[in-house]
Amino acid sequence: MNSKKQKKFHLRNPHSGKYNFKSLIESSKGLKKYIKNNPSGDNTIDFGDERAVLELNKALLKTYYGIENWDIPKGFLCPPIPGRADYIHHISDLLPNSKKNLKVLDIGTGANCIYPIIGNKSYGWKFIASDIDPISVENANKIIKKNHLENSIVIKLQTDKNNFFKGIIDEEYVDITMCNPPFHASLKEALSANKQKRNNLNKTRLSNLNEKLNFGGQKAELWCKGGEILFLKKMARESLLFSNKVGYFTSLVSKGENVKPMEKILRKLGVSNIRVIEMIHGNKISRIIAWTFNSGGKG
Predict the structure, then answer these.
(1) What is the 3-state secondary structure (H, E, C) of 111-163?
(2) pLDDT tens digit sequence for 166-179
(3) Model confidence at 107, in pLDDT bands (50, 70, 90)?
(4) What angle do CA 266, 91, 298 make, to 5 degrees?
(5) Distance between CA atoms of residues 211 and 188, nearest Å
(6) Can you give the pLDDT at residue 4?
(7) What span, in angstroms and rounded, lies between the C-alpha atoms of 196 and 110?
C-alpha cells in the first residue's frame, strides 16, 4: 500500500486560500446579500445558512468553471466545492496524461452533479454519472442540458440500489470510478452529526428530530443501512466483477476506522495495488481509497 498525507489542497486546486468574495459577487449578484463581516472584519457568509451556501456554490461554479445555470431542489445536498475539487485533482494523478478522452464514472452524483462538472471543466474528462434517486437524476439532467454538456456527461438512473456498476457500465471501458458514500447508518445518526455541525458553526438553536438538516441531503445522500463501511465493502466485492472494465476504483472514506477493514477485504479479493490519500482541510480529515486489479497500475 502506498499512503500519502495531504495537509493542504492539491496544487492544482484553484480554491485554496480565502474566498475572493469581491470577485465572486461580480460573477453572481445573488451572493451579495449574504455577505457579512467576520470578527476580523473580513467578508464571509453564514455557512449554516443553506441559501447562502447555495449562492456561494453558484458563484464558484460560474467564476471557475463557466457554469451559468446551476440549482438543486430544496432539501438536497449542497456540497462544498473546494473539497469536491480536491478529490478530482487527486485522482487525476492516478490517470495517464497521454490518454485522450478519459472516461470517469461518478457513483451517486446527486442532484448537484458537482464531480462531473469539475472533472469535465478541469480536465476534459467524459463522465457517466449515476444515481438511484429519480429526482436527483432529473435535476442533474437539467443542469447538463442548460449548460450544453450533453456530449460530455451522461446521467443514468441506477434501478437496483444494491448495485454500483451493473446496469451502468455497459461495453465501454471506464478509466476510473469515484464515489462519495453516505456517511451514516441511520437518520438518527445523521441528525446527531448535524447537531454537532451546528455546534461547530456556533449555532445557538439546535436541531430536533423534526427539523431539516441545515446542510441539506436526502436519505440516499446521507445515510444507508449498515453505514459507510457496509456500502464500501459491497462496492469492493462488486468491483471484482468489473476488474477488466475499469482501470481504477476509488471512493471517499469519511471515517478513518473504515480504512483498514476496506484494505482487508480488498486484499482478500486479490488486490495488491491499494492507495490511500489522506486530505486535511482545516479541521476536517477525509481520505480517498483507490484500488486496481491491474498490477501494473500507477501508484
Answers:
(1) CCCHHHHHHHHHHCCEEEEEECCHHHHHHHHHHHHHCCCCCCEEEEECCCCCC
(2) 999 998 899 999 99
(3) very high
(4) 65
(5) 12
(6) 56
(7) 24
- Report the C-alpha gap between 229 and 49 in whole angstroms: 30
Within 10 A of 96 (CB to CB), how many other CB atoms are there? 10
The position carrying cell 458514500 is: 181
Cell of 289: 481509497
Is the per-residue pLDDT at 216 higher than 80? no
Asked whether the CA dihedral 199, 87, 27, 147 is positive or negative, the reply is: negative
The C-alpha atoms of residue 58 and residue 55 are separated, in whole angstroms, by: 5
SS3 of the chain: the string is CEEEEECCCCCCCCCCCCCCHHHHHHHCHHHHHHCEECCCCCEECCCCCHHHHHHHHHHHHHHHHCCCCCCCCCCCCCCCHHHHHHHHHHHHCCCCCCCCCCEEEEECCCCCCHHHHHHHHHHCCEEEEEECCHHHHHHHHHHHHHCCCCCCEEEEECCCCCCCCCCCCCCCCEEEEEECCCCECCHHHHHHHHHHHHHHCCCCCCCCCCCCCCCCCCHHHHECCCHHHHHHHHHHHHHHHCCCCEEEEEEEECCHHHHHHHHHHHHHCCCCEEEEEEEEECCEEEEEEEEECCCCCCC
- CA 252 – CA 160 distance, rounded (Å): 22
Phi, psi (5° rounding) for residue 187? -65, -40
Amino acid identity, residue 219? K
Residue 3 confidence class, pLDDT cut points 50, 70, 90 = low
CA–CA distance, 194 with 155 (Å, rounded to integer): 29
Range 2-12+79-292 has CATH code 3.40.50.150: yes
Cell match 478519459: residue? Answer: 102
First and final C-alpha spacing in the chain: 9
Per domain, the residue ranges of the chain are 2-12+79-292
